[in-house]
Structure formats: C-alpha cells, structure tokens
Design a protein that fits this description.
The complex is a heterodimer of chains A (about 160) and B (about 260).
Chain A: H1 2-32, H2 40-71, H3 78-99, H4 111-145
Helix pairs in contact in A: 2-3, 2-4, 3-4
Chain B: H1 3-27, H2 31-49, H3 51-54, H4 61-86, H5 99-119, E1 125-126, E2 130-131, H6 133-160, H7 165-187, H8 195-233, H9 245-258
Antiparallel strand pairs in B: 1-2
Classes of the chains: A mainly alpha (about 160), B mainly alpha (about 260).
C-alpha cells in the first residue's frame, strides 16, 4: 500500500513538472492560432546534443567523485577504469554522431565547433538550472521559516 | 598565438580553474588548501568575466560576457532569499526581522533587473550589435525551470507536508508568475528581442531541459552500475576471530571507566 502510494506520488510530481509546459503550449497555440514556433527537427537536434553533452560532462564530474569513493576502499582501479570507459564512450559517441552529417550540426561548420558549442551551451543551461533550483528551493524555505512558529512536540502534562 | 590557443588560454583554462578550485576547496580538510581552492576559483571567475576583452575573437567568450551581465541580478536574488529565509523562525543564525523587508526588496529588484534584460534596454548586446546568443539560451531555461520546479514543490508541500496549504499557495503563485512572464515573452516584443525569437529559443530550451535530464540521469545510472559491479566482485570481507578473554576483560575495564558518574544536585 505504501509503495503504491509512493509510486502514485511520484507520478503526480512528474505530471506537476510537465503541466506548466502543456499549459504554455495551449496558451501559445490559442493566442497565435498555430504552433509555428516549434520546429521538431531543430528540437530533436538540440535534445540529442543535450543528452550527449550532459552525459559526457556528468560522467567526467562523477569520475572526479570516484576519488572520494576510492578513499574509503583502498583506491581500487576497477571502478576508475569503468568510469573512464563510460567517459570515452560519451566522447566517441558525440564525435561520431556529430561527424555523421548535418543531423546534429546546429549552424556550426565543423565537428569541433559543434562540440565546443555544445559544451558552452550545456554550461549555460546548467547555470540557469542551478540558479532556478536555488531560487525555488530558497523561496520554499523562506515561506516555511516565515510562517507561524509551530509547536512540534506537546509537553507532557 | 592563434585564435584557438588564445581561447584555450584565456577562456577554457580559467573556466576549468573555477571547477578545479571548487573541487579542491570542497574536498580538502585543512584551511590552507580550502583557501587556495577558493582563490583559484575566484581568479578563474574573474578571468572568465574579462574574456570578452582578452579573447574578443572567440565565440566562447560570449559566455564570459553573459556571466558578467547576470552576476548582478543573480546575486540580488540569492541575497534576497538568504535574508528572507534567515529573518524568519530559524533556530540558529537568525537575522533581525527588519531584514525581511530588505530581502523582499532585493528579490523584487533582481527579478525586475532580469525582466529589463529581456524586454528593456539592459539586454546583453555582444560586439555592439547582436544580442548575446547565450542570453537567449539562459533566460528561457531559467524561467522555464522556475515555473516547472515551483509547480513540483507546490504539489510536494501538499503531499509530504502537513497543513502546508499556505506555503503551497506561495509556490503556486511563483509558478503562475513565471508562466505569465513566459507567455509575455512569447507574445510581447522587447527592445532587442522579438517574441518570435523568444518563442524559438523557448521551445529549444524545453528540448534542452529534457535532454539534460535524460543525459544526467544516464551518467548517474552508469556511475551506480560501475560501483555495483565492483562491490559485487570483491566478495564477502574476511571475518575477524572472536575476542580473547584478555581482550574482553580490557574492554570491560574501559566500559566500567566510562559509565556511571555522579547525580546532579
């Protein structure tokens, strides 16, 4: 029962994340009469580039994190090699897929230019997401601390 | 030096200094290394911010240009939230309640500043004529993430918290305000950015956000998988022999020394 409730809650939270996007989509379509600003080809290209770049950058950051893990495990080499392999797969997949043709090139002339642009783009997106998380979580804490002081434990009579 | 080497030396190297400095300062336990990490990070940040002057030919330096532009309103937002949070009912580090008004002022000023950068004259213009293309990525992603995340937090307050309807309403109103700002961006032309340009970049930022969520989740999954495989391969740890009678008596002596005490008057 508890697990079912937990799954249901996660689904509700996922819907809560998507809901504003759907509302904006409906409002924009209603105001403009069409949905011309959404280009499926460009969006797919951006989606694919974002997956490849964030996977690679995320793996590099987690590879750095493995050093903390290694501290408590007598510095084993196997997980480091495993994570290095994951990073190399990410880099190779990015270069290979960008080099395959115009599918993943976004107004950039070469594979190197696109790869560098992807890194820059992901850094800016990470910056925006991090600031938004700080603002939202901070606002939540501000509302929690500025409410009435609650009595959590009732004194025994 | 050619343009590529200039970009590496004056932009990408300082950018990596920021990350490396943060890593050193967070991972080290002694003060000297922590301060050294912080110094490297701040130095890298300053060098990235001045990159439009040090490497004006590199397109990457427009990231430094953007960071220079957003550092003001971002700091105001963060300071505002800090003042608002710690001027309330917190057990430690409580600020005077008068700081609440200052916090609200900083928050409003920061939001107004960002709005003026989108619709007013404060837009980051790079090389004198073009709108910085990274601003066109930053703002839609930022506002979209605020809209979606505050919606999630609003619902989670109702699901997880008890009697948190008031707080949930505040988070819902933040989500609605950001949604209104997005709709304004999609319909109202700014001084430098048209609604059509904003709409194009907004839907790209939706794809970008989902791509980043999928890519990051995938890397975390691979990380967990690598650790799981390694932990499974090392097998059970060797069991230690049971304590001898001498060790047991030594332990009971130590325990006897550390329990008991005097009754307080």
């Amino acid at each position: 029962m508890s697990e079912l409730k937990q799954t249901l809650n996660l689904k509700i939270l996922f819907i809560a994340f998507l809901l504003p996007i759907f509302v904006i989509w409906i409002v924009e379509s209603s105001l403009k009469g069409d949905f011309s600003s959404f280009d499926s080809s460009d969006s797919f290209t951006r989606f694919a580039n974002a997956i490849l770049t964030s996977y690679t950058l995320g793996s590099v950051i987690l590879l750095g994190n493995l050093f903390f893990y290694a501290d408590s495990r007598k510095r084993p080499l196997a997980p480091l090699i495993g994570m290095l392999l994951a990073v190399f797969i990410g880099i190779a997949a990015t270069l290979l897929l960008i080099g395959m043709g115009p599918m993943l090139l976004e107004a950039n002339g070469s594979v190197r230019a696109q790869a560098v642009y992807n890194i820059g783009h992901t850094i800016v997106s990470f910056l925006a997401i991090s600031l938004a998380i700080a603002v939202c979580v901070g606002s939540m804490f501000a509302t929690l601390t500025n409410g009435k002081k609650r009595q959590i434990f009732y004194e025994e009579e | 030096m050619d343009d590529t080497m200039n970009a590496v030396a004056f932009f990408w190297f300082p950018l990596s200094m920021m990350a490396l400095g943060a890593w050193v300062s967070l991972s080290s336990k002694n003060n000297l290394r922590t301060n050294f990490g912080r110094f490297i990070s701040v130095l890298g940040f300053v060098l990235v911010c001045v990159s439009p002057w040090t490497v004006p030919t590199s397109p990457s330096s427009s990231i430094g240009h953007l960071i220079g532009f957003i550092v003001g309103p971002s700091s105001l937002l963060l300071i505002g939230i800090y003042l608002l949070t710690f001027s309330g009912n917190v057990p430690v580090g409580k600020l005077p309640s008068s700081d609440r008004k200052l916090g609200a002022f900083c928050l409003i000023l920061g939001s107004l500043w960002f709005s003026l950068m989108q619709w007013g004259e404060f837009t980051p213009i790079y090389e004198g004529s073009e709108v910085n293309r990274f601003w066109l990525i930053f703002f839609p992603t930022f506002i979209l993430m605020i809209c979606c995340l505050s919606s999630v937090l609003s619902i989670s307050m109702l699901i997880i918290g008890e009697e948190r309807q008031k707080e949930s309403k505040v988070m819902t109103s933040i989500s609605l305000i950001s949604m209104v700002l997005i709709v304004c961006g999609l319909t109202i032309d700014g001084e430098n950015i048209s609604s059509e340009t904003f709409a194009n970049y907004f839907w790209l930022s939706v794809s970008d956000l989902f791509g980043i969520l999928v890519g990051t989740s995938l890397s975390i999954f691979i990380f967990g998988f690598v650790i799981y495989v390694y932990e499974r391969s090392i097998g059970e740890p060797d069991s230690v022999p049971p304590p001898t009678s001498e060790e047991l008596s030594q332990a009971s002596e130590k325990i006897a020394l550390n329990i008991g005490g005097f009754e307080s008057e």
